[in-house]
Structures are given as C-alpha cells and as structure tokens.
Amino acid sequence: MNNPYTYARISLKGLVHNLAAIRKNIRRGTAVMAVVKSDAYGHGIVPVSRTLEKAGIDGFGVAFVQEGMVLREAGITSPIYVLSGFQRGEEDMLVAHNLVPLVYCTEQVELLDRVFRKRNRPVSIHLKIDTGMGRLGFLYDDTGTMNRVLQKAKKLNIAGVATHVSDPHDSAYFTNIQLTRFKKVKGFLESGLSKRLTSHAANTDTFFNYPDSSFDMVRAGISLYGYGQKGLTPVMQVFSRLISVKTLKKGYGVSYGRTYRLKKDTRVGVVPVGYADGYSRMLSNKGFVGINGKKVYILGRITMNHIMIDINSVPAHVGDNVLIMGNDGTMYIGADQIASLASTISYELLCSMGSSLRRIYE
Ligand SMILES: *Cc1c(COP(=O)(O)O)cnc(C)c1O
Hints:
Blueprint: E1 7-10, H1 12-25, E2 31-35, H2 37-42, H3 45-54, E3 59-62, H4 65-73, E4 80-82, H5 91-96, E5 100-103, H6 106-119, E6 124-130, E7 138-139, H7 143-152, E8 157-163, H8 172-193, E9 198-202, H9 204-209, E10 217-220, E11 236-241, E12 244-248, E13 253-254, E14 260-261, E15 266-271, E16 288-291, E17 294-299, E18 307-310, E19 321-327, E20 332-333, H10 335-341, H11 346-356, E21 358-361
Parallel strand pairs: 1-21, 2-3, 2-10, 3-4, 4-5, 5-6, 6-7, 6-8, 8-9, 9-10
Antiparallel strand pairs: 1-11, 11-19, 12-15, 13-14, 15-18, 16-17, 16-19, 17-18, 19-20
Helix pairs in contact: 1-3, 6-7, 7-8, 10-11
The protein binds pyridoxal-5'-phosphate.
The site of pyridoxal-5'-phosphate has 12 residues, from α9 and β10.
C-alpha cells in the first residue's frame, strides 16, 4: 500500500518545458528520443509518454520489450527503441508491437531473421556498439563479427547504429576516444551497407557537453525530468506533512541507535516519509526538508515510515506541509542535492521515490 500522507506531484508542463530546453541546446533537425525506461525514472511511463508524444517527441527509449508493449497498448505510435535489445522468446512480441531493438549479438539477428521469414513483415533494427562502456554491444574493433552480422541480417532493415558513453562527466579524454571509435564503426557499417544509418551516442551529460556527440538523435533521460543541466524544471515534487511536534530535553536521543543526542531542548517534528518510500536511509543525520519556506535538518536515523526533524528555528504546526524534494514555490530541494548527501545520484532517488509513492499529475 502507498503512503497515504506523502505523494509525488508530477508536472507534465515541466516535462514539456524541459523538452524545449533540450531542443534549444542541440542542432536543429537532431531528433530527440525520450528515455522512459523504469517507469520514466519513476514519473509514470504512460502519462509522461503521452505528454511527450503530443509535444512532438521523435521516439521513445525503453529498457525492455515489455515496457515497449505497455506504450503500444497505451496508444503510443512513435518509434520505440528497446535499448537493451531482447531475449530469446521475445522476438515475436517485439515485431508484433513494432519495436526497434538495439541488437548486440548475432543470435538476436538469427532470431529476427526467423520472425521475418515467418511473417514476411519488415523488421528494423539498430546495431549497438560497445566503444568503451563495457556493457552491451558488439565490440568496436570486432569487424569480423560485424561482417557476419551484415551477412546474416540481409533480410532485416538495419536502420541505425548506436553506442553509449561511459564517463562524459569526468573524462573528456575518454569520451572523445569513444566518439572517435563510434565514427569509425559507423563509417565501416555504412560503407558495408551502402547507406546512411541513423546514428546516436549521447545521453544527457554527453549531448549537453559535447556538441559533436549528437549525430542524428540524442537520447534524453534525466534532463527531461529536470536534472543534469542548469535551466531545467524538476518534474517531480515530493510533499508530506508534519504529524507530530513535541519538545525533547537536551541530551535526549532521537531515533534508532540514538545516533543523534539533542544539544539543547529542541522542538522535534515527525514527518511520515521513510526508506519504504524510497527515501534513502543514507540520509540519516544528513538530509533536510523544507517547512514554511525554511530548510530544516533530519535528526538521527531514517526509519521505514518516518523521519524526525529539528524545527526549533521555524514556526511549524501539526498538519503543515513539508517539502521533501523539488520546488514548492518558496524553496527548492534538488534530487541531485539530496542524492549526493546519500552518496548516490538523482536518477536513483527519482526512481525509488517515484515508484514507491502515489503520483498526482498536474
Ligand atoms: C538510460 C540511458 C540513457 C539516458 O541517459 P540520461 O543520462 O538519463 O540522459 C541514454 N542511453 C542509454 C543507452 C541509456 O541506458
């Protein structure tokens, strides 16, 4: 059951604003794929995708075939790319729902070839190249395997080629190596096939910081949800409320393990949000929330359903709204800010809170 007192408000307007900001930052004519894997980073795959399709998005990226099917069943007609390809047994569903897999091994080509022969219906694929991520993809220098793929894929429509950048934030040196490897593979495949391929390499951090990385399409995830670059609007705001206020004496221990001892008599508030809501326990004794426009700190450990906060410095009453994350018009608590206090990234916090909480759309 969802937490009844804490919820995520999702601003679909914010999403459209962020798409416009992304388009401003890339060359005109570059397509934007909205990455909506993992329930649109916890924002809800169907409402997010419907909004973006109306706003003129060029395609969607999901991790799994099943997510693509959810989109088709919701009436999405734009191209859908399955970033993690597919597993044996999923090839019929993939083709039936007109999904484009990022193919990373020869077996996938054989399976799709069989579906093509059975259905005699065009099957489009993109080839995924590993240029330095060490995850999925044909190795960038394995031209032998790529030649075999081109042979086996004669009946398939190889429409594109993609790679994924591993360290855009911290290493321009390695990112440029990856982009160079990608250009080389793209050239090799295009001359082998005697046609141009739709090429894409960049996630948010890459297309904002490496203008040369956009190729024909960018894959925008975190920036659509309002993070990873300045000037974006956080799409998810998390709100809760104060359910208890009492004054505890100097020296009193707060929460499990009594890891926080009050330094003076303190008004302590209780807010019904905890690690069961995806609010990381790593924020114990570190995190903060907003009440009536003021930043107040978490005292002691985060529990499954509650946190305790120091409200000595604010007039606060039972029933008052508490901002956990995002923007409430009076203050802003970035998912990236609190994520870094918890030694993680905005992506993880958005996924975990968004998927745990009740969501309200506006
Ligand atoms: C998740 C993902 C993205 C989106 O990355 P962001 O940093 O959120 O923009 C792009 N490409 C691939 C292959 C991904 O897995």
